[in-house]
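Protocol step 4 of 5: obtain the predicted structure for the target chain.
Materials: sequence only (see below). No template structures provided, no constraints applied. The aim of this step is simply to have a reference model before the mutagenesis design in step 5. Sequence pasted as it appears in the construct record:
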Amino acid sequence: MVAQSDGARASKPSAAGTSSSSTSARPVFSIGQVLAKLQPEFPDLSPSKLRFLELQELVTPFRTPSGYRKFSADDVSRLRLILALQRDQYLPLKVIREHLDAMDAGQASPLPTALGLTSTSVLSTRTRYTKEELLRAASASANLLQDAISAGLVHPADSYGDEELATLTALAQLQRSGIEPRHLNVLKATAEKEFALIERALAPVAQRQGPASRAKSVERAHEIAVHLDVVRGQILRHVISRNAGQA
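Step 4 output (structure tokens):
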């Protein structure tokens, strides 16, 4: 979960140059609704990838006082551009950020390409990382990746995607605080219990047949997961505050 103030955050201007906090672009979409809008075009998009893009400050959704993320129509357009540049241009996030920053500043910025290739030459190519690229992008060691694989937090593969990059980046940050992958078994056990809660909640929808019902079930599962994430974070913050007061 991205560490952030529970208060409202103003979004960066979109690629179109308008702020998400403007009246015409008020934040109205939850994470689940954003996923429902973008996943048909970008099937690999997940809540954790959205949070990773937020962590990288490529998009800054509004935060309600209770901690919920809310995205504007401009935020959704910005995310669509980011994901398209990753997929179609095979661009690293650093290059995408520079492109967006230039557009936000109102500067003319030609559409970037990867390694001098045109967009059509890498059309529909998804972002993938070799092991070395993954470690470099996440600022992580090979030992940390192996520990993450051993703990079941990352699956071994010949190449890795943005989901694994987001996970390994978070693990590298946790390691700097003395938290190793082996310490996170409690999170896996909690996730299994939370999935059981989601399954029970979605049982009526899951019993229905057809692609529309399955899509609705997936959307609702993501929304419930986001709500659980907010509650879990609030509980943890409450525990931290309570114990800090006793110190």
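Step 4 remarks: The domain at 1-110 is CATH 1.10.1660.10 (Multidrug-efflux Transporter Regulator; Chain: A; Domain 2). Residues 1-24, 114-126 have pLDDT under 50 and may be disordered.
Proceed to step 5.
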